[in-house]
Specification:
The protein has 408 residues and is an alpha/beta fold. It folds into two domains: 7-30 and 299-407, Aspartate Aminotransferase, domain 1, CATH 3.90.1150.10; 42-296, Type I PLP-dependent aspartate aminotransferase-like (Major domain) (Aspartate Aminotransferase, domain 2, 3-Layer(aba) Sandwich). Helix content is 40%, strand content 17%. The chain is built from 14 helices and 17 strands. The chain has helices at residues 7-11, 39-51, 62-82, 96-111, 130-139, 156-162, 185-194, 214-217, 242-247, 282-298, 300-319, 346-355, 368-374, 390-407; strands at 20-21, 24-25, 27-28, 90-93, 117-121, 142-146, 167-173, 198-202, 221-225, 236-240, 258-262, 265-268, 324-327, 336-341, 358-359, 361-363, 379-383. A seven-stranded mixed sheet has the order 4-10-9-8-7-5-6, sandwiched between helices. It has a four-stranded antiparallel sheet with strand order 13-14-17-16, with helices on one face. Strands 1-2 form a two-stranded antiparallel ribbon. Strand 13 (324-327) and strand 14 (336-341) form a beta hairpin. Helix 2 (39-51) runs antiparallel to helix 10 (282-298) and helix 3 crosses helix 10. The protein is globular, with a radius of gyration of 22 Å.
């Protein structure tokens, strides 16, 4: 397995990082929003468009056969990446948000009724809140919320207290996009199952930062997005246990998800194809496959160690800055540092840093309930990827100090 002994070599794989912004070398610290793409991904997608592109599953000609084989090969790659038991447990969607909505509408509207409960935490991204609110309006279910602690953590005892015989699904983030908190999802899954509930894990911020084993975690559903895993936008993955997917009706109709269509009635294909209506994101799947090969060659464990070093370095460096307060200090964290500064709005911090060539995110990070719980309008957020270095963090700290001086 390749080691992360030369981050410089890895940075050279990302063409975007060679540019300057406002006359300064680009320092990209917004991987939590979307990761940059290595040349291997860009070239794989370009080559597919140039030499192999065709629609899949339908044509008898050579290009269609080759495209279908490439597409289904990636499904197997994802199965191995997540350690799913079967390739037909992997559903390709247009993003993680669509994957969660698929579960809400396909599974939730079929099996939940008024009075049933879906349990989420206060730490969730909007994409793991709004679909359940929509389901609540449609079916009369109850949405229960586990609070977060002042340091941005979720306590097992609070999850246990919120579970009840009416709980049918627990939907939680593996890693918080706003604070970087790593939730004890395996323990939560065990508790959910003991209560008779299923668990959906939002793995968008986890899949690119650590090894994921859906069987070891006890996940019934697991979702992630390709664009946060150094792949393209427009591609997401839903893992669902085979027995659960087999019991679910389709979420959308048309195209490749049908077995036969008559005006007297339609029959549907078996999963996963039942859930992949219309022309799928074929080229994006090819890009996802290249991204998986790229991170696998480096090793998720190596990436996790590298980003943990960056997190510790950034925490120490930023904590030493007068007037800066780190938001989210849970004992288990991934490569995200959110912070606020006295008398400076996070949007102003982000704007000043941009003039220094440093890209961070400022705002509520699609996690307004988190901000409300912590009594904040927004935070500035630096998030790390496999291409970041301690020099990037030094540049961040220097620019933050400059921002403080400007507002002094």
């Amino acid at each position: 397995m390749a080691a992360m002994n030369s981050v410089a070599e890895r940075r050279a794989d990302f063409p975007v990082l060679t540019q300057t912004v406002h006359g300064k070398p680009l320092v990209y610290l917004d991987t939590g929003a979307s990761a940059q793409k290595p040349r291997a991904v860009l070239e794989a997608m370009q080559s597919f468009y140039e030499r192999e592109y065709a629609n899949i599953h339908r044509g008898v000609h050579e290009l269609s056969a080759r495209a279908t084989e490439r597409y289904e090969t990636v499904r197997g790659d994802v199965r191995r990446f997540l350690n799913a038991a079967h390739a037909d447990e992997i559903v390709f969607t247009h993003g993680a948000t669509e994957a969660i909505n698929l579960v809400a509408q396909g599974w939730g509207r079929t099996f939940l009724k008024a009075g049933d409960e879906v349990l989420v935490t206060q730490l969730e991204h909007h994409a793991n809140i709004v679909p359940w609110q929509l389901l609540q309006q449609q079916t009369g279910i109850t949405l229960r919320v586990v609070p977060i602690t002042p340091d941005g953590d979720v306590l097992i005892a609070d999850v246990a207290a919120a579970l009840s015989p009416r709980t049918k699904l627990v939907a939680v983030a593996h890693v918080s996009n706003a604070l970087g908190t790593v939730l004890p999802v395996a323990a939560i899954a065990e508790m959910a199952h003991e209560a008779g509930a299923l668990i959906l894990i939002d793995g968008c911020q986890a899949a690119s930062h650590m090894s994921v084993d859906v069987q070891a975690l006890g996940a019934d559903f697991y979702v992630f997005a390709g664009h946060k895993l150094y792949g393209p936008t427009g591609i997401g993955v839903l893992y669902g246990r085979r027995d659960i997917l087999n019991a679910m009706p389709p979420y959308q109709g048309g195209g490749d998800m049908i077995e036969s269509v008559r005006f007297s009635g339609t029959t549907f294909r078996e999963p996963p194809y039942r859930f992949e209506a219309g022309t799928p994101p074929i080229v994006e799947v090819i890009g996802l496959g290249a991204a998986l090969a790229y991170v696998n060659a480096i090793g998720l464990d190596n990436i996790a160690r590298h980003e943990d070093l960056l997190l510790r370095y950034a925490t120490e460096k930023l904590s030493a800055i007068e007037g800066l307060r780190i938001i989210g200090t849970a004992p288990r964290k991934a490569g995200i540092v959110s912070f606020v500064m006295a008398n400076i709005h996070p949007h102003d911090i982000g704007t000043i840093l941009d003039r220094h060539g440093i890209a961070i995110r400022a705002g509520h990070h699609c996690a307004q309930p988190v901000m409300e719980a912590l009594g904040l309008p927004a935070t500035a957020r630096a998030s790390f990827g496999l291409y970041n270095t301690t020099a990037d963090i030094d540049a961040l700290a220097a620019a933050v100090i400059r921002a403080r001086e400007l507002f002094a």
